[in-house]
Amino acid sequence: MAVRDGLESDAEGIARVHVQGWRESYKDFMSPDALAGLSVEERLSMWRSTLAKPDPRSKLLVAEMDCREIVGFVCAGPARAEGAELLATEAEFFAIYLLDRVKRQGLGRRLMAGVFSHLAGQGFRSAGLWVLKDNLPARRFYEALGGQAGPEQSFDVRGQRLAEIVYRFEPIPH
Ligand SMILES: CC(C)(COP(=O)(O)OP(=O)(O)OC[C@H]1O[C@@H](n2cnc3c(N)ncnc32)[C@H](O)[C@@H]1OP(=O)(O)O)[C@@H](O)C(=O)NCCC(=O)NCCS
């Protein structure tokens, strides 16, 4: 399995993993309607525009099988203004998703390490993220990497009210 920088030509593979990742990993805490309403096309246009104007302070890595199939990705950069007060870190992880069939093989750890080292090299001193409060596997993962739990908030996603919680890495491990 290779981990490499995401390219414009990866938009479709990333959008597919993004939607399949939600459907596989969020089925226990999101409604079937919300998951069925996810659209690869919608994600595709979002990832196309992200990949078309890369920000040097940000990092997007993909995990690729030998047959060149994308099975995971991670994306991080300067923290967004939205939610910044509660997140309270300089950098933010926007997404990390792996397909079920490649989980628990150290790939998540490799993707995070690649981003941590980029963020530290860019001078960021802290990184954080929001994770669904009920997403215990992901929370255990962030804790295994040294993340510290922070504040919580609720938000609406496709008609469903969900709670999310902050994890912070400060200083950034590298
Ligand atoms: C969370 C995720 C990125 C972890 O990636 P991964 O490759 O499966 O994790 P790794 O194999 O690198 O695990 C590293 C360590 O994290 C911990 N960990 C990972 N998954 C865990 C789980 N399901 N339960 C408990 N601990 C877990 C373990 O300590 C593990 O070390 P070990 O395997 O030596 O015990 C991956 O499971 C995923 O994509 N999940 C679905 C999407 C998601 O929830 N994303 C988070 C959005 S905020």
Account of the protein in words:
With 174 residues, the protein is an alpha+beta fold. It contains six helices and seven strands, in the order βαααββαβαβαββ. A hairpin with a 2-residue loop joins strand 6 and strand 7. The model has no long low-confidence stretch (mean pLDDT 96). The structure holds coenzyme A (COA).
Key descriptive features of the protein:
single chain; about 170 residues; alpha+beta; Aminopeptidase; 7 strands; globular; binds coenzyme A
Helix percentage: 25-40%
The tally of beta strands, per DSSP, is 7
The tally of structural domains comes to 1
SS class: alpha+beta
CATH superfamily: Gcn5-related N-acetyltransferase (GNAT)
CATH architecture: 3-Layer(aba) Sandwich
Question: If you compute it from the alpha carbons, what radius of gyration comes out, rounded to the nearest whole angstrom?
Answer: 15 Å
Order of helices and strands: EHHHEEHEHEHEE
CATH top-level class:
Alpha Beta
DSSP helix count? 6
**Distance between the terminal alpha carbons, to the nearest Å?**
21 Å
Overall 3D shape? globular
| Residue fraction in strands | 25-35%
Task: Write a brief caption for the model.
This protein is an alpha+beta fold. It is 35% helix and 30% strand.
